[in-house]
Design goal:
about 280 residues, alpha+beta, Jelly Rolls, Arc Repressor Mutant, subunit A, 2 domains, four-stranded antiparallel beta sheet, about 20% strand, disordered N terminus
């Protein structure tokens, strides 16, 4: 079975943290031939800032090109991997997902920010500066700087774009579908609803998804629902029934069967297993 590895930081099964961890992009990528294979973090939230060189990033199966000035936002449980040029430079900031969520709404999915990145970079620099040189009221300062970083990310996220050149019509439809799934996966799983909103037939939407995203439209929706279910099971105290209801499943038994199929174990078993980590 080809499982996607889950790491604390890439290549590390455990890594102690206070508020955050930061390092330059080449510090870790050079050790792996400038390639970070697809993986995910159960509890970590990452922000990558590319200042030099170029990169190719894979986010949950969608591949994008990065240029200097790009910011990549990777919430917990998002599968991500990178191929960097050897002249790459920049910073990777790693936080606990729980700290991010404690300060406001979390980020539902990964994002690539090309415009408005300067304010994000400045907020990252200030947060790292406080972490490296703690002073009086360090905890309050860290919370303040982290809040400002999250505000900067949310403001810039509205300008998030895929940096893979000018998209053709199929890529534009695929991007519109992914964006719609992000906003509507709790309300509907019907392919016809998404296809109608985009202006294509369900059959054509499936063809586009397989061509551009490498999976059927239903698979994309189910993966997004599963990702949210995993997050809720890990980071919330909601019951399995409540999580199912929040995700649009009126029948708790059906929701349990669905999650069991997607995760290979029941929601309750998954929560117990992850709670041992």
């Amino acid at each position: 079975m080809n499982l996607i590895p889950t790491y604390a930081l890439y290549g590390e099964q455990e890594s102690p943290h206070d508020w955050l961890h930061w390092e330059t992009i080449p510090a870790r990528s050079r050790l792996h031939g400038f390639r970070i294979a697809p993986h995910r973090h159960e509890h970590l939230f990452q922000v990558l800032s590319l200042s030099a060189g170029s990169a190719r990033v894979d986010l949950d199966g969608a591949v994008f090109r990065l240029r200097p000035g790009s910011i990549v936002v990777v919430p917990a449980l998002v599968v991500h991997g990178y191929d960097f040029s050897e002249d790459v430079d920049g910073v990777v900031l790693t936080l606990f997902e729980r700290d991010v969520r404690a300060l406001g709404p979390g980020f539902d999915g990964a994002a690539i920010i090309a415009a408005g990145a300067d304010i994000v970079v400045d907020a990252m620099r200030r947060l790292i500066g406080e972490a490296d040189h703690p002073g009086e009221s360090h905890g309050e300062a860290m919370r303040a700087h982290l809040t400002l970083l999250l505000v900067a990310l949310r403001r810039a996220q509205s300008l998030a774009v895929a940096l893979d050149g000018q998209p053709d019509r199929a890529r534009m439809h695929a991007a519109a579908f992914r964006q719609m799934v992000e906003s509507r996966f709790r309300q509907t799983r019907r392919i016809a609803d998404y296809a109608g909103a985009i202006g294509v037939s369900p059959t054509h939407l499936n063809r586009i998804c397989r061509q551009v995203l490498g999976a059927s439209a239903l698979t994309i929706i189910e993966r997004r629902i599963t990702l949210e279910a995993r997050r809720q099971l890990l980071f919330s105290t909601l019951s399995v029934k409540e999580i199912g209801a929040e995700l649009g499943y009126d029948d708790p038994a059906y929701f349990t069967r669905f999650i069991t199929r997607m995760l290979g174990m029941s929601p309750s078993a998954f929560r117990r297993e992850m709670g041992r980590g």
